[in-house]
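Input set for joint prediction.
Command: fold jointly, output tokens.
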Amino acid sequence: MERLTVLYDARCMLCRQVRAWLEVQPRFVEIDFMAARSERAANRFPTLDQDRLLDDLTVVANDRMVYRGGKAFVMCLWALREYRGLSVRLSAPHMLPLAEASFRWVSKNRGRSRFLRRLFPTDQRPIRSHS
Amino acid sequence: MDTVVVMYLSYVALSVGLTIWVAQTLSKNGRVFLVDVFDGREDLANSINHLLVVGFYLINLGYVTLALRTSEAVDTTRVAVEVLAFKIGLVLLVLGGMHFMNMVIFSKIRRRRRLEDTPPPVTPDEILAHGPLGLGGT
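tokens >
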């Protein structure tokens, strides 16, 4: 597995900020970013369910493995040199459900949460998500 | 010979002996560990081990010789033993500190190495029928 493609909600401020952060981190594995529901994504992954891409963060590896939601985020961490250890700890049986639930909450509230807005301040108001 | 010279000689003999003993422990056990970390490449493990041991000797023998002298009036055997004990105590602490630092270095090397080989920690939710187009996907 040498490359990961991250399909994210490009309208979401929070997602864009996390993408920017990921891009500058030292990594073990190359990461490509692609806006979900874009033509590029549809062309690159014709067999992938395009409708789900806006609901859940999706990561596709070049060996055809697909990861969604919290697992997708764990895979992003796994790709990074300084966070691979964390990704292994988060995937422990007693930790993974918690990590996935937390990620689901962030994902669902990414457009609306005042708490998240305070954690990730931006100049513009974040766009409300579909869900 | 003056009491103080006897003390100095005992100090040197004990300190050098202790240093050699600790260095050999580190060298013997460290080597096994390094061979594992470097995937069986014995010449590489030996070379790194040797470099670490040389550094260890330099620092410790340097400390031992620097700390030799005393300004106390070592006139009686009692004072000689007390001063000797104090100095040996310091040598042991320095050796212990160096030993600890070696362990930290080894453990960091090992952790780094293991991380590089770590496979994805989660199972995929789906596997695509076809690889991503436009890339060399299988």
